[in-house]
Amino acid sequence: MPQEPASFDAVDRALLDALQKDGRATVGELAERVSLSTSPCWRRVRQLEESGVISGYHAHLDRHRVGYGVLGFVQLGLHEHTAEVTAAFEREVLALAQVLSCHNLSGRYDYQVELVAPDLENFSEYVRTRIRSLPGVREISTSFSLKEVKRTVALPVGGA
User: Fold this and answer.
1) Which end of the chain is less congested by CB atoms within 10 angstroms, N or C?
2) Is 72 within the bounds of a domain?
3) Total Cβ atoms within 10 A of residue 39
4) Rg of the chain in Å (alpha carbons)
5) Where residue 75 sits, what CATH number does that domain have?
6) Residues 32 and 96 placed together within one structural domain of the fold
7) Would you say residue 5 lies in a domain?
8) Per-residue pLDDT of the chain (160 residues; tens, 9 = 90+)
């Protein structure tokens, strides 16, 4: 069941925006950016963390410099849609390090997996051996990113 969205005031939105741009900012730097003193700023950030609005802090790595030259998308159709098959499929996908994201879809395919590989040969082998062997997989369609135009994990917090 989806949770009710949190309501944010202007300071919360400014803090969330600042942290998404620079998760390493100190509380002092954040306080200055949102025009608060350090203690109230720290309390607000802590409250946002405790409420689950801030779910973690991460380093954004350049996939090319880490050795992943190929970014691809795999659309998957399952032969069964039972709770057992989908749970097994999702459990195994979670364990695959090269999978960046997995989405349960509406439409023709049941899932879309975004994954990285060092090169096309490795991508092809990974799809044939690891992805095809996932529980319930009946159909696979792949496509590759020719050019990444935009990638962000930052959510707009200025209002919908």
Assistant:
1) N
2) yes
3) 10
4) 20
5) 3.30.70.920
6) no
7) no
8) 567 777 899 999 999 999 999 999 999 999 999 999 999 999 999 999 999 999 999 999 999 999 999 999 999 999 999 999 999 999 999 999 999 999 999 999 999 999 999 999 999 999 999 999 999 999 999 999 999 999 988 899 975 4
